[in-house]
Amino acid sequence: MLMRLYYLFGFLLVADVSLAASMVRDYPVDRIAPHTYVIHGPLGYPSVENQSFMNNPGFVVTDDGVVLIDPGSSVQAGRMVLKQIKTITDKPVTHVINTHVHGDHWLGNHAVVEVYPEAVLMAHPNMIKEANAGAGDQWVTQMERATEGFTKGTQAVIPTVSTSEVTQLETGGVDFRFHAPDKAHSDTDVMIEVVQDSVVFLGDNATYKRIPRLDDATFKGNIAACKVAEDLAAKHYVPGHGPTGGVAVVEKFGRYLETLYTGVARYYEEDLSDFEMKPKIVQQLKPYHSWVNFDDQVGRHVSLAILEVEQDSF
Ligand SMILES: [Zn+2]
Q1: Dihedrals phi, psi of 37, to nearest 5 degrees
Q2: What pLDDT does residue 168 have?
Q3: pLDDT, mean of residues 76-85
Q4: Cα of 292 from ligand 1 centre, angstroms
Q5: Cα of 217 to ligand 1 centre, how many Å?
Q6: Where are the domains of the chain?
Q7: Ligand 1 centre distance from Cα of residue 240 (Å)
């Protein structure tokens, strides 16, 4: 009897562990406008602790179904996102739009096609090209490494429909407009405006209370993208990472980029080396010192800005 209980208990334990590994732990859904919801992820890098999940998946419930934006970093994150959508509506996911090529935003596509194979997957044409040229598989590997295997089984399900072919989408009584400034956060970026709700999904063109990596960005292009977003004069701005808010979200990140870039350009003119200018620029960026990953990224951002200033001066 004891032995049988042991086997039963052991089996349940194993079953429980495998179930837990198939899905990221639950995160709450925030309704930010009549049709629009956001699941705000935690702010760190993908890790064992956050099970890879750290972006802001959004979804818009239309008369015909759900339009899902950036369903997360893995099949496990995407399954959690679908589970949360179910708490709001039984309508199917009809469209997925990915804001850019970085895998923390779109590897969750895999979970969508598991359940809704008919869903239309859309992204910037450069995103589709880069993901197919190897970035997709690289991100799968990177996520698996960062989570020590939690995201195992995730496949790169790459969009097939380009947002530049259609520039906007009208579905179930809701209009989506695509804004895709060049060479911004990654040169694969599309920002999505939900017209009736006055919401803009910024992708990583702006983040809030968290400093992003800018290795694939240009400062000038990213500053211009923030301006494009600001000029839309929307009521709600959803950053790629961090809390949703008003136009201050995009203004504040734009000011980070501008302060850093103009500072570097000036000190470069004055022949200061990177290690001489860094403390001065850090000083000027005081309002961002408390943002997650500031200390980790700011030195790299100074180096990237120097390269861009150098290139511009030829
Ligand atoms: Zn990104």
Answers
A1: -130, 150
A2: 85
A3: 98
A4: 15
A5: 9
A6: 22-247
A7: 7
Task: Collapse the DSSP code of 10 into the 3-class scheme (helix H, G, I; strand E, B; otherwise coil) and give the result.
Answer: helix
Q: Could you tell me the sign of the dihedral formed by the alpha carbons of 282, 284, 290, 294, in that order? A: negative
Handedness of CA 205, 207, 211, 212 (dihedral sign): negative
47-69: pLDDT as tens digits: 999 999 999 999 999 999 999 99
pTM for this structure?
0.92
| CATH class held by domain 22-247 | alpha beta
Name the residue among 231, 258, 78, 223 with its Cα closest to residue 155.
78
pLDDT at position 166, please? Answer: 76
Cα of 249 from ligand 1 centre, angstroms: 16
CA dist 233 to 109, 154, 255, Å?
30, 38, 17
Query: What is the average pLDDT across 77-90?
Result: 98
Q: How far is the CA of 312 from the centre of ligand 1 (A)?
A: 24
What is the per-residue pLDDT for 167? 78
Q: What is the distance in A from the centroid of ligand 1 to the CA of 74?
A: 15
Q: Which of 115, 58, 100, 107 is nearest to 81 (CA)?
A: 58
* Centroid of ligand 1 to alpha carbon of 104 (angstroms): 7
Q: How far apart are CA 217 and CA 279, in angstroms?
A: 22
d(CA 182, CA 302): 21
Tell me, in angstroms, the distance from the centre of ligand 1 to residue 12's CA: 39
Q: What is the pLDDT of residues 295-305, one digit of tens each?
A: 999 999 999 99
- Distance from chain centroid for Cα 205: 9
Written as one letter, the residue type at 139 is: W
Residues 244, 57: Cα–Cα separation, whole Å? 12
At position 230, the amino acid (one-letter code) is E
| Amino acid symbol at 252 | K
Q: Answer whether 166's CB lies under 8 Å from 197's CB.
A: no
Q: What's the 4 CA to ligand 1 centre distance in angstroms?
A: 51
Q: Over 60: is that where the pLDDT of 9 sits?
A: no
Q: Tell me, what's the pLDDT at 18?
A: 47
